[in-house]
Design a protein that fits this description.
two-stranded antiparallel sheet; elongated; single chain; 22% helix; alpha+beta
Length: 159
């Protein structure tokens, strides 16, 4: 499991306190300076990466064609969650990482590329799919999204 530290607290604990022995003071000073330099160079995670929160799909959409969790409004009990991916209307069928059925029926044909452009919107294949059809438009308002949890698993089965 990853461990996270508060960088400023560690740097403060590495501040130098004077020692009255000349040789010891030089060694301690150099050691603390080297430790501070290493801590300062460590990559920093932002709080949003540590504690996932729903992101606004209007102002902060996910990377195109990346599967994420979405929170959408429904008519039955308020909100539901599923996985989906976002399309911004710029990806063509041949360039997509997803499998698309019947795209010629509702996609936009581009004569220059001789290919269909995938319409802008949210797409999923678990909740809005009649008869096991892949990539169906999410026809409810998406009010939030967040990245999927990491697929990395350690030997004992914990992340």
């Amino acid at each position: 499991m990853d461990e996270y530290i508060r960088r400023e607290a560690v740097l403060k604990s590495l501040e130098y306190t004077t020692v009255w022995e000349a040789e010891a003071e030089n060694v301690i000073s150099l050691t603390l300076r080297a430790a501070r330099e290493k801590v300062e160079k460590l990559p920093a995670l932002q709080e949003k990466d540590l504690f996932p929160a729903w992101r606004n799909p209007e102002t902060d959409p996910p990377k195109v064609e990346t599967e994420v969790l979405i929170l959408y409004r429904n008519d039955i009990d308020g909100y539901s969650i599923t996985t989906a991916h976002y399309e911004d209307g710029s990806v063509f069928l041949q360039d997509s990482v997803w499998y698309w059925e019947d795209l010629p029926d509702w996609g936009t044909y581009d004569e220059e590329r001789d290919d269909y452009r995938i319409p802008k919107g949210w797409w999923e294949y678990r909740h809005f799919n009649p008869d096991e059809v892949y990539n169906n438009r999410v026809d409810r308002p998406v009010v939030g999204w967040m990245p999927l949890p990491s697929k990395e698993v350690t030997q004992n089965g914990n992340q």
